[in-house]
């Protein structure tokens, strides 16, 4: 689960991390009000969508008057902001964050991720922060430093100093950097975050230099949300695919794709294999859907309904290898779905495993026209042939 930039900043602030003074606004008048309240003579108006790359797409504007804050907020709110991370359809800007603009002297990149290799939270940092960090990673990977954190000991001061030195922080910025990194790490651990990305971390200020977080992105472990109520409350369903939201409410794992062959499969591995088989036969899957183990007829019906909410779906491929599942339940679920949803697209069904004979018999005796398949390859070939007409 992801949160907005302003939520990440408020969270970091509660851990003592320096962030700009700001406020969120849902309308242009609120934006003007926020700017008035926080004061100053220069403000940054920032579109709040979950995707990054806003700076280059016009979603981050520095302005010098309250009127301009209002005008900029008005222009941003309600528009589809398209960045290199949103995909071509973009994301609708429903709120903006207004903050006092900072005098930026230098920008850094500071990320905390879980490194799969070491299975540990790892700091990734660079002195070449800002909007082109992806380019730095590609062109000059030596400018990116890494520091692995031992979970039993936690993040130690010397590690923070090592990272800070490597990215060029010194003098009075050093103790600030140590305090900041330790706070981000503590926040990440407390809140079951998978990732905390600060880009840019900046040296700001006239006179005394100060480190400040100017942009922050957090994502959290969905499997830990049951014990993270405050984080769960920050969830913005508008940023998620409505079909994915509905599916997760029914205990289904659904991810929308852009093809026309709907897929209902049990197990993530088999689901991936099914997508590959469809692609191999020259077709394009419309989604990834894992019904999981113990798929009751109701679950199968819900799965069919969610897949059919995608208007691009021209046929549904059902591929079940029942272990914990039972083919007779799946068959009953498909019949129930056909009757209650009046499915008009062809259904290609491949069943294997527990109670397969019974499952096949139920389908055969239903009087409904399922296309049955012997194995995964056969099922994929038949699905692709169906959409080709
Ligand atoms: P992103 O493009 O979605 O990652 O959005 P960011 O919040 O990182 O903003 C993009 C760029 O806007 C940053 O790299 C900064 O250069 C600039 N920016 C952000 N906040 C400020 C600010 O307070 N003052 C100034 N002058 N520039 C800012
Ligand atoms: Mn950024």
Layout of secondary structure:
Elements: H1 5-13, E1 22-25, H2 28-38, E2 43-47, E3 60-63, H3 66-76, E4 80-81, E5 91-92, E6 96-100, E7 104-115, E8 120-126, H4 133-139, E9 144-148, H5 157-166, H6 173-190, E10 193-204, E11 210-213, E12 216-220, H7 229-232, H8 242-249, E13 253-256, E14 261-265, H9 268-280, E15 287-290, H10 297-308, E16 315-322, H11 327-341, E17 347-353, H12 356-364, E18 371-372, H13 376-388
Parallel strand pairs: 14-16, 16-17, 17-18
Antiparallel strand pairs: 1-6, 2-3, 2-6, 4-5, 7-8, 7-10, 8-9, 10-11, 10-12, 13-15
Manganese (II) ion binds at residues 52, 199, 215.
Structure description:
With 389 residues, the chain is α+β, with helices and mostly antiparallel strands. It has 3 domains: 1-20 and 103-239, ATP-grasp fold, B domain (D-amino Acid Aminotransferase, Chain A, domain 1, 2-Layer Sandwich); 21-101, ATP-grasp fold, A domain (Dna Ligase, domain 1, 2-Layer Sandwich), CATH 3.30.1490; 241-388, 3-Layer(aba) Sandwich (Rossmann fold). The chain is built from 13 helices and 18 strands. The strands form 5 sheets. Strands 7, 8, 9, 10, 11 and 12 form a 6-stranded antiparallel sheet that branches. Strand 16, helix 11 and strand 17 form a beta-alpha-beta unit. The mean pLDDT is 94. Bound molecules: guanosine-5'-diphosphate and manganese (II) ion. Manganese (II) ion (MN) binds at residues 52, 199, 215. Manganese (II) ion (MN) binds next to loops.
Counting DSSP E segments of at least 2 residues, the number of strands comes to: 18
Please write the CATH class name of the largest domain: Alpha Beta
Q: Average pLDDT across residues?
A: 94
- The structural class is alpha+beta
């Amino acid at each position: 689960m992801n949160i907005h930039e302003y939520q990440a900043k408020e969270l970091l602030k509660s851990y003592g991390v320096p962030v700009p003074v700001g406020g969120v606004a849902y309308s242009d008048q609120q934006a003007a009000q926020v700017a008035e309240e926080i004061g100053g003579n220069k403000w940054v108006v920032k579109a709040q969508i979950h995707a990054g790359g806003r700076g280059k797409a016009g979603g981050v504007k520095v302005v010098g008057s309250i009127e301009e804050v209002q005008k900029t907020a008005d222009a941003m709110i309600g528009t589809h902001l398209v960045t290199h991370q949103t995909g071509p359809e973009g994301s609708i800007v429903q709120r903006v964050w207004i903050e006092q603009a900072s005098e930026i002297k230098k920008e850094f990149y500071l990320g905390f991720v879980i490194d799969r290799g070491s299975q540990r939270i790892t700091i990734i940092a660079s002195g070449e922060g800002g909007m082109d960090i992806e380019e730095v990673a590609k062109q000059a990977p030596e400018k990116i430093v890494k520091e692995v954190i031992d979970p039993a000991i936690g993040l130690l001061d010397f590690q923070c100093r090592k990272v800070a030195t490597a990215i060029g922080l010194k003098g009075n910025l050093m103790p600030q950097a140590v305090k900041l990194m330790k706070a981000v790490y503590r926040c990440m651990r407390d809140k079951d975050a998978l990732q905390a990305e600060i880009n840019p971390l900046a040296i700001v200020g006239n006179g005394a230099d100060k480190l400040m977080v100017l942009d922050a992105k957090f994502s959290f472990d969905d499997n830990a949300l049951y014990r993270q109520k405050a984080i769960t409350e920050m969830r913005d369903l508008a940023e998620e695919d409505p079909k994915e939201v509905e599916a997760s409410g029914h205990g289904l794992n659904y991810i929308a794709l852009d093809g026309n062959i709907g897929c209902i499969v049990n197990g993530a591995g088999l689901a991936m294999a099914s997508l590959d088989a469809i692609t191999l036969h020259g077709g394009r899957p419309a989604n990834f859907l894992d019904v999981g183990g113990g798929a009751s007829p109701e679950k199968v019906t819900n799965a069919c309904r969610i897949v059919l909410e995608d208007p691009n779906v021209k046929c549904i491929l059902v591929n079940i290898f029942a272990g914990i599942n039972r083919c007779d339940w799946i068959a009953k679920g498909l019949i129930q779905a056909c009757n209650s949803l009046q499915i008009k697209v062809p259904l290609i069904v491949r069943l294997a495993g527990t109670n397969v004979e019974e499952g096949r018999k139920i389908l055969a005796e239903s009087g409904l026209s399922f296309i049955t398949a012997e194995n995964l390859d056969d099922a994929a070939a038949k699905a692709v042939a169906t959409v080709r007409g």
